[in-house]
Amino acid sequence: MGYSEIVKDYKNNEILRRSFNDLACKTFEIDFEEWFKNSFWDDTYTPFSFVENSEVVSNVSTSRVKIISNSNIFNAIQIGTVMTKEEHRKKGLATQLMKMIIADECGKADVIFLFPNEREFSFYEKLGFTLIYDKKYSLEEIPVKRASAIKHLNMELESDKRFVEKGIKARMAVSNRFDSIEDSSIRLWYLTYSLKNMIYYISELNSIVIYELKEDVLHLYDIISNEKQDINEIISFVIGEKTKRVKLYFTPDNRFFKENAVIEKNSNPLFYLSQKFSFPSSFSFPYIARA
Description:
The protein has helices spanning 14-28, 33-37, 93-105, 121-126, 158-169, 184-192, 231-238, 254-259; strands at residues 6-8, 45-52, 55-69, 72-84, 111-114, 130-139, 150-152, 178-181, 199-202, 207-214, 217-224, 245-248, 262-273.
């Protein structure tokens, strides 16, 4: 067939899914197949693709999520996996897909957003998106380390994998100041690949914590719990003996800001399109929830 027809939501079509995956590997060096086999690819993630001879030649994907901002909940569409085969570029295929998604979603979602590469800025500006930057938060006043039983979870083990999946799906927002929710599919992608060796369970708090210790820095990616947790307490359990700084990859709650001297810097570029919603002046979009 030619590629005048747009095909979407074909995760159960093995030929198209593998073609999509091959293009993602070549374009971004990322993979979706294990994520699919683990049943983590759910109906919230939808690829929209131009197909030629049963091969995906251009794609834009959407992830349907919700955003908490200052205790209010908004329906959102996150754009990701924008890619076109090299020999099909400069034909306007990705632009057509973006315009179709915008036209379809603008009346349904409160905001459409994405995290671009810098070389793509002009592409999204032409489509009417507004550029902002989220923040990067870090903490240099480290709480006293506390002893606790911490178990490393192995995503190669079916029992641990399903325990993590269950926790993610029941996860309570870390902060009402700003967070992303109903996004388990995206978070499980990270835990299938880049963060799979950084998953720990603190039995005393009944919480899964995603973190990494590098030299004297604690990188705290996420806290997964069905109850509200004190971030300072979490930090005190997972810091190392030599930890001097904590980098947060999400927005902590207001109480955390009041109790701690938080260092704030501009971080990732973010484009958004909305007439109903504006991102707050200070927030860090969860690293583990970025499509």
